[in-house]
Each structure stands twice: as structure tokens, then as C-alpha cells.
Amino acid sequence: MTALAETTTGSSDVTEAVLGTCRRAKVASRPLRLATRAAKDAALLAVADALEAATARIVAANAEDLERGRAAGTSEHLLDRLALDAGRVAALAAAVREVAALPDPVGEVVRGSTLPNGLRLRELRVPMGVLGVVYEARPNVTVDVAVLALKSGNAVVLRGGSAAISTNTVLVDVVRAALEASGLPADAVQGIDEHGRDGVGVLLTARGLVDLLVPRGGAELIQRVVREATVPVIETGVGNCHVYVDASADLAQAVEVVLNAKTSRPSVCNAAETVLVHSALAADFLPTLLRALTGAGVRLHADERALAAARAAGVAAEPVTDTDWAAEYHGLEIAVGVVDSVEAAVDHIGRWSSAHTEAVMATDVRVSDYFCAAVDSAVVAVNASTRFTDGGEFGLGAEVGISTQKLHARGPMGLAELTTTTWQVLGDGHVRA
Asked: What is the pTM of this model?
């Protein structure tokens, strides 16, 4: 057993199996590093065709996962994230083709210069190498991550969790077969779902084989990865997102944006979890907003002034707690607060936000400019829903995750965020004095 294997957790069989997967990924990453854009794009188009051809097989496997989930009492919002039907498979294939059409970041010159001695310097984007991605109950992520990794010249080891194991197994098989048929190494995409939590522990400590880990899921998953990993990690996913409605807001727009941010898909990380309303709007506008939210089936957690507005609106609300302010609900619930200024809104966000996405509704440019400058989150939206924080919406084709940290990548992680850089020093017999 190698020194690396001895440092990992889990049984010796699981350790060797997962490390073997990582070693094969490392080997596969080397020809990917040299692959041309034409070769990578052809493979991605083959993946898209293969997904469509395997639709019935994918949907059948997904039905097995859904059946197990329902039997285990999985909530409806998590079942929605898990579900794949023919339409969603077609959307996955379309997203793969969109990634194929994007520019290849590998080889892009980030900066360069010529020194006075004639030595030429270039900083180029190059692949990371091997990515490890850990996520939960989201089989679409299996495809999104695989194709972004391939396009950016990386191999990837995927752990999608037991809830989607049947679906993910089929998806990985389909992608691997398409790669092999296209002349790229099948081991560029591998899964370790069958090795469970112990397998995750091995992946987290496979330093020297895995170059970057990206956890995508709930707070518990992300904290485990951050706590246990010896491989570099980019944190993603937890979305305690806020919408602040300023006194200067277009109120009709504000209602529409808040409803969209909360209700269009409440299970995802870019859904709003808190709405803050300026006190000048508490008497007239806030009851209207609360009626609209409850009419859409949203449960309200309100501070003292928002509770008064709820009573005036004739809608049910319960007192907000610190747990509510900190919550990522993943469902039709929202915390509601009244603040006296944009500064107070920013202070609240600074205390409770997960640094994912915050939105301000305001027509006063001074307010929106202050909000954008003062809020320290990955994405700040002005007069727009938090739901736009998404790799596809940002023109990235898809995303590995939405980084909420500040190192290397922040916000939706697309192709460029899966590269690092190499400096090239180009001389003509130059020696240093």
C-alpha cells in the first residue's frame, strides 16, 4: 500500500478501489491535456447524441432512484431535483452541445510581456488535471460536470450520492462509452458512488492524485469536505440569498421579482430565503407582498414589524428566529424583515448571508451603487431575481458549482474556472547575470 493510501480513511478495499480510480483519472488526464479543441468538441457532441439515444435507459434507472426515495420519505423538493424525464434528458443533451460551442479556455494567453533583455513571458491557461466533485441527488450535475471537465481538458472523479446511484451509474456509462468511441480515454470520467461515505473520505485525502475538490450540496456535505479534505477545496452551493426592497423600488417589479426568486424553483441554491423591506414600505407595500407570497403557498417567518404587516394583510406568519435568518429552506418558506435603511439591510446580509447571491430592488442609483459596493457576496443583482445566478444563464454553458469563497474562483464556475495557469519563458540562449 502506498504512503498516500495509508493516510486515507475507510476499509482497505474501499481505499484501494478509490485510489485506483484516482490513479486511472491521473493517467487519463495526460492525453486530455494535449487534446485539441476539435477532438474535445467531437467527443462532447458524441456524448450529447449518446444521451439522447439512451433516454429510455436513463429514465428507467431514474425511476428506480425515485421509487427508493419515495419509500424512504424523501421530500418532494428533493425528489424534484432527483427526477429526470425525457424532457430533462433532452435539455441535458442540449446543454452539452452548448458547452461544445463555447471557446476553449486552454491555451488562452492571460497576460504577457517582453523584458528589456528580449526574454518573452506568457501566462497561459492550462487544465487543472484531475477534479473530484462530490454532490447529492442531482443527476444532471453528473453530465454538467463531466462535460465541463472534458472541455477544459480535465479528468473527473464523481461522487453523486446513494439517492441517485442508479441514474448516475447509467449516465457515467453512457459518457464513458461515447468518449471511448471518440478516441478519448474513458477513464477521464469515473464514478465512485458504490463506495459510499468511506469512498468520499478516501477521495478527500487523495492528495497528489486529485488536484481540486468541489463539493456541491447542503451545508452538512460542504462542511464535511472542508473539515476533512487534504486536497484543495472550492466551497460551493449553500445559498442563503436575500432580496432587499428599497423605498425607491418599483413596487410592481418588486413583487414579481420576490415571487420569482422564492417560488420559481424553491429547492435550488439561488432561491431567495430572506426578503428585507424598507420601513417606509411597511404599512402599504409589505401587506401586498405578504399576501402574494402566502397566495403562492409560502410560509412566512417574520420579525416584529413584519408580523404587524402580516396581521394587517390578514395572513399567517410566525415569529422569526436566528435559525430562520440562517436557513437555506429548500422549500416554500421565507424569512421577512423590516429595515430602516439600505445600510441596515447590508448589515443584516453581512451577518446572515452565505455569500452566494443578494438582490436589491431600487430606482435610486445611489442606493443600488452602495448595495453593490458594500455587499460581499459572489453575485449581486440589481432589479433582478436571484435565480439568474446560474452557469447557463451567465453564458457559461453549465457550471460545476457556484463558488461562495474568494480563492481562485467566485460565482458560477464554468470552463475558465477549471483551469490554472502556466508561465512560459521564451528565450534565445538567455542566461541570468
From this structure: 0.85
